[in-house]
Amino acid sequence: MTAMPTPYSNTNAAPVATIGIALRWAIVALRKTSTTAQLDAETLVMHITGFSRAELVARGPHELSAAQAADLARLVERRATGEPIAYLTHTREFWSLELMVSPSTLIPRPETELLVEQALALIPTDVAWTIADLGTGCGAIALALAKERPRCHVVAIDNVPATLDIVQKNAWRHKLKNIEFLQGSWFEPLAARVNMVVSNPPYIRNDDPHLAWGDVRFEPDYALLGGVDGLDAIRHIVAHAKDYLYPDGILLLEHGYDQGMAVCSLMQHHGYSDIACHQDIACRDRVSVCQGR
Ligand code: GLN
């Protein structure tokens, strides 16, 4: 990266580049390592300038300050090493909520919106259920459910204090008050039974080759790795959810595309009823659901 010709070679001189030039430079700089170079470059310039995408075009001739140019050069350099865009801008959108993320949290994925959709399909609009989100991370699932079901009470649980700090900030940012935050491992901090348990637990096999590619290289192992067969956390949750659910309570779990059968048979083995597996938009098994009695 350092050898790359850039408009930032003289960062002491201000102004050093226009938005249009900076954008073109960033796209070229990222093409070697990113398949989404244009989108990445636009996102980083938007982050640095605070401009919208439409403003980027309109303000092409607008000059960046030396500090902005230097910040952009640093972020482009980090992106070129593969660091996820969401960790560089500290945000990712999920369920139309702009969420703060950090390297202590998994970056929310679009496929997790399927879990939210399936949960909402099962939660009547007028009930005041208690819903526990285990391993909440940045709170994507918990916050989406709290927003869509304001009468429900959502308990966001995570073992990692730095992560709980992020989900709390996200709740404040979106003015969601029907949510509480508890630190602990899976069900451990729950003091009473709940109507629904949801989770996107770590489910990747420890030796999965896709851990060597893309964003996952930078995400925390504790949010990704599920043991030799990827099912360690899921086994624990399925084995214990019944002790924390009301008899007709519902368990919903996200899992890997090739784990649907295994998760559903675990649910069967533990005596749950109404077991079903749902596919994501790529038609791959992604979310399994069952009832506690
Ligand atoms: N869906 C993520 C991936 O495959 C993994 C998320 C998880 O382990 N909970 O990259």
Concise structural overview:
The protein has 293 residues and is an alpha/beta fold. The chain has helices at residues 19-31, 37-49, 53-58, 66-80, 85-89, 112-122, 140-148, 161-173, 221-224, 232-244, 260-269, and strands spanning 17-18, 63-64, 91-94, 97-100, 130-134, 153-158, 179-183, 194-199, 245-254, 273-279, 285-291.
Question: Describe it for me?
Answer:
Helix content is 38%, strand content 20%. The chain has helices at 19-31, 37-49, 53-58, 66-80, 85-89, 112-122, 140-148, 161-173, 221-224, 232-244, 260-269; strands spanning 17-18, 63-64, 91-94, 97-100, 130-134, 153-158, 179-183, 194-199, 245-254, 273-279, 285-291. The strands form 3 sheets. Strands 7-6-5-8-9-11-10 form a 7-stranded mixed sheet, sandwiched between helices. Strands 1-2 form a two-stranded antiparallel sheet. Helix 2 packs antiparallel against helix 4 and helix 6 runs parallel beside helix 7. The chain binds glutamine. Residues 106, 109, 200-204, 216, 224 line the site of glutamine. The site of glutamine (GLN) has 9 residues, from loops.
